[in-house]
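Contributing new records

If you add data, match the layout below exactly. Sequence lines come first and carry their own label; structure lines follow with theirs. Keep one chain per record. Anything else will be rejected by the validation script.
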Amino acid sequence: MSDNSFGTLFRVTTWGESHGPAIGCVVDGTPPGINITEAELQTWLDQRKPGTSRFVTQRQEPDQVSILSGVFEGKTTGTSISLLIQNQDARSKDYSAIKDKFRPGHADYAYWKKYGIRDYRGGGRPSARETAMRVAAGGIARKILGRSIKIRGAMVQMGTESIDRNKWNWSQREKNPFWCPDAKAAAHWEDYLDGVRKSGSSVGAVIEIVASGIPAGLGAPIYGKLDGDLAAAMMSINAVKGVEIGAGFNAATLSGEENADEMRMKNGKVEFQSNKAGGILGGISTGQDIVVRFAVKPTSSILTPRNTITKQGRNTTVETKGRHDPCVGIRAVPVGEAMMACVLADHLLRHRGQCG
């Protein structure tokens, strides 16, 4: 399995399995002299870790990160930064009953057909447990980007229930367990997801990630499109089945006049009168907010019996016990933020390398 890395100049390689002794990553390309501590990275990891509410998996992992290399006396050295998180609460016995069964909607079957071997414990390598290292790497990327660039994510839809965009308030985002910017929607979602959770089922979600303070000029017009790299990064997150930039699929319903982001000069600066493009035109950032949304499918591990087959080719049913997220989209919010940070840091370094 060679495809464990992403990025060009800012490059992240992850390793480890859900129920192995540890997970980790190596981050290459970080400039020297950047102040960074384990506590700063931990701030972001604490937003993603399991067991933080009744609406996420109750696996109790502190996700305590250790910096093993690339930092000396609190500053990056310019060499590879190695990060490690020990797995402390894996319960592999929860999966022994399904070791020969494939969970519908999960990567079990496809992984087995490709490699001829499958780690059934919590999903093994394809598990969302791997995303903890992306969040840690995203913390380093944020340091490269600097304080002037802000990256925030929000859940804008859970199952069939959407927020009211007229009630969007970023300050509400951290006052509920769903990263929801609409206080009324968040209150409704509690009852909604409680019902889903108690029934042993799951629902999907739509996540929106917004990056502000991005300079114009990041990206390239053909094979290095900023939106192309962002789409690939978001699609690489577990359970993501769709990505859109700006108006996205809704752009197909707009007229040319409606879709045009008109421009005027104001106080010597360009001012856009709308942002249907999501801050990217021709693969290059315009200086507006970069807006990305992605759709997360329902968690595949559910208690409801589903038809499946065994490794031996027999028809059977499967129900997955253990500790699972009834809506994996909740913990996907900090992961999406991290992937946005990693892509932007990579493109910032690439832009400097070409244009100074």
